[in-house]
Backbone:
C-alpha cells in the first residue's frame, strides 16, 4: 500500500511513540511533529485509520493507537474502572 508523505510521517511518529510507550498526541501536536497544519495531520491520521494501518481506541479526549502491522501500541488509556461507567470508542 502506498501512503502519502503526510500519512507516512504521521505513521512514523506514531510508531516511534508506540516504541517508547508514550501517549498518542493530539492532531495539533502531530501536525507540529510532521511540519504540517493541523487539518493535514488530522486527515492523514483519519486516512491511516480508514485504511486499517492503525486501530484507535478513544476514551474522552484521549486515544490509544495500535500499529496493526506490528501490534505496538501507544500508552494505555487511564484506568476508569473506579469511575462511573464510561464508554470507550473502539475502532479496528
Residues:
Amino acid at each position: 500500500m502506498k501512503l502519502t508523505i503526510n500519512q507516512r510521517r504521521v505513521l512514523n511518529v506514531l510508531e516511534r511513540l508506540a516504541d517508547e510507550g508514550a501517549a498518542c498526541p493530539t492532531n495539533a501536536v502531530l501536525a507540529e511533529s510532521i511540519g504540517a497544519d493541523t487539518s493535514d495531520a488530522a486527515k492523514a491520521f483519519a486516512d491511516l485509520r480508514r485504511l486499517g494501518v492503525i486501530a484507535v481506541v478513544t476514551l474522552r479526549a484521549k486515544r490509544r493507537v495500535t500499529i496493526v502491522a506490528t501490534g505496538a501500541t501507544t500508552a494505555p488509556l487511564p484506568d476508569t474502572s473506579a469511575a462511573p461507567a464510561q464508554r470507550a470508542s473502539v475502532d479496528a
Remarks:
- The chain has a mean pLDDT of 89.
